[in-house]
Design goal:
This protein has 9 helices and 12 strands. It is of the alpha/beta class and 336 residues long. The chain folds into 2 domains: 6-91, no CATH class; 102-331.
């Protein structure tokens, strides 16, 4: 989890602390920093010992909060005040953040469901990605170039087909693609402001008669993993930084009544596990950096509520980790 306010204590001139402060400043997080130090590190104070420990000159001009060991209660009170004031400065007001257009989203959803109805498919994974901390406004040609480079080699999300019939098409507000085949139906669109919408049945489509009306849980894990990897690739190419936030919404349809099966077995579990309901959609705000450093936990956050509908089924952490890593290896061109 990213800290919005960073408190760094410079007491005893620890090199690692100065390195971390410099790193935060290099990421343009200067306004997120609150610096503290023991009172005798203030070179202007009467208590300062010549040639003793001090706050180095490059940070000395910063508004440092000094503390005394015998006045920690007062220090705590002042530190809390500074944190509260800093939160007001650095956190964007809710009304100033861009908002997802529900009218636009409903229009895409209706178009996707109408397209799926033509195929006879009954299940789909719906993804909505929306950048919160960056103003994006790109022409259709740039969107197409970025979308093509953001594809995951082993996935199906946001696929840019180059076969004439299924090529992405320019729209008044972005680009859109729609195609269907033996493995399912897909519809996606990328708006000029960076909003991405996808409605894809590939992960839930039957590969043969034996897999009809089933859900292989490894395909669910791989689909959610792909969603995060795609979001990271797409928005890094659209100019978002490591600490910028993206709203991610994931929904499923056509899950109710399906059997849950293991990836290596076309036979149901010893005790049949059937989904009791379609899962509710989930939304989370994720920092770009967290996708890389906390990927398995992010995938678990979205996968676990879906699997729990199959008679409270849950994957062991080691199983989930291996499935995520398997997909990542494939996406990066490795084996496994």
């Amino acid at each position: 989890m990213l800290s919005v306010v960073i408190v760094a204590d410079l007491t005893d001139e620890r090199p690692n602390c100065y390195l971390e402060v410099g790193y935060a400043m290099g990421l343009d997080k200067f306004q997120n920093l609150i610096l503290t130090a023991r009172y005798d590190h203030d070179i202007r104070a009467r208590d300062h010992v010549p040639n003793g420990p001090k706050v180095h000159f490059d940070l000395d001009s910063y508004n440092i909060l000094y503390w005394r060991p015998d006045e920690l209660a007062e220090f705590k009170e002042e530190l809390e005040k500074r944190i509260k004031r800093r939160l007001v400065q650095v956190l964007p007001a809710e009304e100033t953040r861009p908002k997802l257009s529900e009218v636009w989203l409903n229009k895409q959803r209706e178009a996707a469901k109408a397209g799926q109805a033509r195929t006879g498919e009954t299940g789909a994974m719906e993804v909505v990605l929306f950048p919160l901390d960056s103003a994006i406004n790109l022409p259709q040609g740039d969107l197409l170039r970025i979308a093509e480079s953001a594809q995951i080699s082993s996935g199906m999300l946001g696929v840019v087909a180059r076969n004439g019939e299924n090529d992405p098409k320019p729209t008044s507000d972005g680009i859109r693609a729609e195609f269907e085949g033996f493995m399912g139906y897909a519809y996606w669109t990328l708006r000029k402001d960076g909003t991405f919408y996808s409605f894809d049945s590939h992960g839930l489509a039957a590969v043969d008669a034996a897999s009809a009306n089933t859900l292989y849980y490894h395909r669910l894990v791989h689909g959610v993993t792909e969603m995060f990897l795609y979001a990271n690739r797409l928005y890094s190419r659209l100019g978002l930084g490591a600490y910028d936030a993206v709203s991610i919404t994931l929904g499923f349809s056509g899950i109710k009544g399906r059997d849950l099966r293991a990836p290596t077995d076309r036979v149901p579990f010893f005790t049949r596990r059937v989904a009791s309901d379609d899962p509710a959609s989930q939304t989370a705000v994720v920092r770009m950096r967290d996708i890389e450093v906390d990927l398995v936990n992010k995938v678990s956050q979205f996968v676990s509520p879906v699997l729990s509908l199959f008679n409270f089924f849950r994957l062991e952490p080691a199983q989930l980790n291996e499935m995520v890593e398997t997909f990542v290896r494939r996406a990066s061109g490795g084996q496994g």
